[in-house]
Amino acid sequence: MHFAVTILGNNSAIPSHERFPTAQVVTYEDELFLVDCGEGTQMQLAKYKIRRNKIHHIFISHLHGDHYFGLIGLINSYNLLQRTEPLHLYAPAELESIIWRQLECAATTLHFTLHFHPLGTPSLQPIVDLPHLRISCFPTRHRILCFGFLFEEKPRRRKVIPEKAREWNVPLSFYKNLQQGDDFVSASGAIIPNRELTMPPPRPRKYAYCADTLYDESLIPYVAGCDLVYHEATYLHRDLHRAIERYHSTTVQAATLARKALHNGGKLLIGHFSSRYEQLEDFETECRSIFPETYLALQGATYFIGTPWKARM
Ligand SMILES: [Zn+2]
Ligand SMILES: [Zn+2]
Question: Burial of 81 by CB count in 10 Å (0-12 exposed, 13-18 middle, 19+ buried)?
Fold first, then answer.
């Protein structure tokens, strides 16, 4: 199953050095999820040939402009392009009135239904429940109310080995039981253990997007065991004072959190770079000195979640 994240924008507040403000698309099988929607997001979707009509869920972490100033433009384009499919928007409550006010001032009537889901709980809260994927939000520590998002694949059933099942004359009607882990009792009364007839399902994969945040170890339970975590690293560590002042994190802090939370091959993706830096090499170097499996979130690159790890530029 395809599970990946594509970066559309990796900068913080001001677009600069050809870097757009924050936006990314998480793909699971055939479904696309837009996470944050900074200015220029719809142009980035077009540039990287991402089919925006496949997006039915948009998640906005918080109401700093670098995370949602592209949203009204995208909604307006959907409307001009005669979208009819509903769109679900998950965001802090105040965004609802902002969007409707913008549409109202333009005398725009939407041709599709916009379902608004306000975020506002102090702990991990499921917000989307699909057959194979659950998406939850969790609070981060920022200057204003801010949420991260956790994408968790649901456990799959065991896989029947057809030749083994035939060898023991397992009726097709029992395959469902095998997938659930039941043993099989043959006609002669012999118990055939489930592990001889099935293979375990792949381990469920997890991706966490930590949005904007101060260094905060209370995030660890939410991101622990993830295959991939996106954590902001707005500043190099020499600018720690700026990070603290503006409720952001440095390279060293992002990597330290990853080192404490991620084991068994988990990877760290860093982004939300400050416009004060033109070059990004030092971001990777500083993080890797603490957490070697760190990668820069580069625009247009796709990072696959789970093993085998790969990135496509
Ligand atoms: Zn930001
Ligand atoms: Zn912010």
Answer: exposed
Return the CA Rg of the chain. Answer: 22
Name 6's bridge partners.
25, 302
Q: Is there a catalytic annotation at residue 66?
A: yes
State the distance from the centre of ligand 2 to the C-alpha of 235, rounded, in angstroms: 13
Quick: pLDDT tens for 26-43.
999 999 999 999 999 999
In this structure, which ligand is nearest to the CA of 12?
A: 1
Q: How much is the pLDDT for 307?
A: 72
What's the distance, Cα to Cα, between the start and end of the chain in Å?
Answer: 20
Which of the residues 30, 36, 66, 227 is marked catalytic?
66
For the chain, domains (ranges, CATH) are 3-153+206-312 (3.60.15.10), 159-199 (no CATH)
Burial 293-313 (b: 16+ CB within 10 A, else e): bbbbbbbebbbbbbeeeeeee
Distance 142 CA to ligand 2 centre (A): 7
pTM of the model as a whole: 0.92
> CB within 5 A of ion ligand 1: which residues?
12, 64, 66, 212
Question: Phi/psi of residue 219, each to 5°?
Answer: -80, -20
Residue written as tokens 């099989």?
Answer: 184
Residue pLDDT, tens place only, 125-144: 899 999 999 999 999 999 99
**Token couple for 116:** 């608004």
Ligand 2 midpoint to CA 116 (Å): 21
Residue 190 CA to ligand 2 centre (angstroms): 63
What span, in angstroms and rounded, lies between the C-alpha atoms of 305 and 267? 9
Spacing, Cα 306 to ligand 2 middle (Å):
28
